[in-house]
Design a protein that fits this description.
Elements: E1 2-10, H1 21-34, E2 38-47, H2 55-67, E3 70-73, H3 83-91, E4 96-98, H4 106-136, H5 148-152, H6 156-184, H7 190-199, H8 212-225
Parallel strand pairs: 1-2, 1-3, 3-4
């Protein structure tokens, strides 16, 4: 059994709810071992939350189609609210297996996509109605004082620094398997790693492109966490 692995992580919620790259890789490896399969290539997608494009998914589906491989993802249940992903998967014509739902099929995914779309529309409608009602009552939306309230509570700078550091640490943890894979491939220089990460659509903690300096910071952060 030939396997094309597809990993996905969101820049907004990296590593939460079992969606970390390491956790996904472990689940896929376990399934491959159970099915006596061989992973011929792994694609990793970093979704921004604002964009609905998935270039790595398109590459994974194409490779699975031309090689006759099976696309394997780790957690279909965690993606059950993502209608665009589910529809792309359903309409691809590619065989797929989800490690957490190995019996899922095209019908299952189609129903999930329909429910996800209806839920998304319902949430949007409720949100608009709630905002309109609040505005009608004269409620001022948003925080007019910005960070002033946090500063008055003596939490502003320290809380922000802790949050940024925690996000960067989590980002480094999620990218460690990718760097390990690049090392196996012989990509060892800072420039080479930066180029490879950019080609794979990986983003820096601030959502930008990789450079030698940002790769150096990433490696330092990973080493400090070990």
């Amino acid at each position: 059994m030939k396997i094309v692995a597809y990993l996905r992580v969101s820049t907004r919620r990296q590593g939460t709810s079992g969606l970390g790259l390491a956790a996904q890789q472990t689940a896929i490896d376990a399934l491959a071992k159970q099915r006596h399969g061989k992973v011929i290539q792994t694609f990793t997608e970093v979704e921004s939350g604002k964009l609905n494009t998935r270039p790595e998914l398109a590459k994974a589906l194409h490779l699975a189609k031309v090689t006759g491989a099976t696309l394997v993802i780790a957690k279909l249940d965690r993606l059950s609210r993502n209608a665009a992903f589910l529809l792309t998967l359903r309409d691809s014509g590619v065989r797929f297996i989800a490690a957490d739902m190995p019996d899922a099929n095209d019908l299952t995914v189609g129903i999930m996509a329909l429910v996800a779309q209806q839920e998304r529309e319902a949430i949007s409608k409720r949100t608009k109605e709630a905002l309109a009602a609040a505005k009608k009552r004269g409620v001022r939306l948003g925080n007019p004082n910005g960070a002033a309230a946090l500063r008055r509570a003596h939490k502003g700078n320290k809380a922000s620094v802790r949050a940024i550091k925690a996000a960067a640490d989590e980002h480094a943890h999620n990218l460690k398997p990718v760097l390990d894979a690049l090392q196996v491939e012989g990509v060892l220089t800072l420039g080479g790693i930066a180029e490879a990460l950019n080609e794979r659509g990986m983003l820096t903690p601030r959502g930008g492109h990789w450079h030698k300096s940002s790769v150096r910071n990433l490696i330092t952060r990973i080493a400090a966490a070990q």
